Amino acid sequence: MATQTQVTTSRLKALGAAADINQNANLAKFTEPSADDEYDNAVQLIESKLDKMAAVDALFTVNLGSNHPGLLVDARNSGRATMSQITDRQQCDLESCSADLYVRPHMIQRFVDGVMDARYALNWGHIFAIGATRVAIKFVDVLTSFEAIHPKLDPSIIDKLPRPTEDVGQVKADLSKWGYGFVKNALSPEELQKLQKRLKDQARGEAEAGVGFFDGGETMPNQRLWCLHNKGQEFIDLLDHNKVLKQFLPPHLGDDAILFSYTANIARPGNSPMYLHTDQLTIQPPIRNINFGLNFMFFLTDITAENGGTLVMPGSHTGNFAPDDPYDVSDCVAAEGPAGTCMVFESRLWHATGPNRTPGSERPVIIVFFMRPFIRPQENFFFSLRPGLEENLSDRVKGFLGYRSTGSIGGVEGKTKDGTFVKKLENPVGILGGESVPLN
Description:
Number of helices: 11
Mean pLDDT: 91
Order of helices and strands: HHEEEEHHEHHEHEEHHEEEEEEEHH
CATH architecture of the largest domain: Sandwich
Strand order of the largest sheet: 6-13-10-15-9-8-7
Number of strands: 15
Number of domains: 2
Structural class: alpha+beta
Helix content: 25-40%
CATH topology of the largest domain: Jelly Rolls
């Protein structure tokens, strides 16, 4: 027989699917009891922010644990919001609520301390919403005092937005102004053909072997492929020799940039738009005045708005910009270009995988994402590198994978001379000079 926690968790999952499209949330934790002191502190902190809660512009509940009353917050008026405990759900105006929010009370303190952004919190399950996800975002924004500006799309700029061009100077100007640009013919016809075939074969092989990775909504039609450097010389050659990487990486990230991730994304019909995010969203608290990374997306087919072109919020890479609702893509435009194009975009740009609405089509892209050398990469390359591959890699590629030390970063056993290449030690220095004392 299912427990009450299991039943409640199932309800949260069913009703709040939009807030957990990637199933990152541990929903059971929201149904657990909470400590009295943490609950009381959370209530006081929320109450201290009621004078700014009008930014949420909604009637909503906040649930802080199964053993304490929920809170009903009315922020529908321009003045100070009101808050009351829900002692009897039948007597509360719950039918008019825009959202039911679930959060552990200790997280309220963290939000007020400003250590975590609302969009990161929602995507990674630190707050959960049944109903309007925008309410969760603006509620946390008020707590953090992060006065985010929603990047509203101005129709008058549509004709001025970046277009594919071979003029590298123009692409760099577009990157600076809009946060993205397109290099036309970034792949030669021969490179394009080789990459198309290798990726198609690899995707089919992983699916047939039962090791494929699928996402993109409830039916999970999209396929992602990880660690492309393991999956064919064609992908290593792209890292080693592509002219666009050489033209854009050093000026933007220096000579020691490391590979954060090396993936492919095949968007297929029936997928849901990805949540809007930046590629430095994992840097918490958010830092908006520095771009830490640069992304290169190679189009392996003609990309259009209809077959899943990446959705972007133009110009959202500078300033205090952040979407009010990361699941609302109405203020986005689709990145479009012919096969062989490379979309270059920086890590602060708000963007998302677009919906593929073309029956029977696939939208394959290769995504090469670099970060500054002091940022921890998404992929632990030392563990995921295919055995025997290291010996055949060029210094350039090994540098991208983190084998090159930079300053005092990336050394082995204290040896961190700048620019040297490291390798796993066969005999690391262990316990010497007597026996170690076991820790009880």
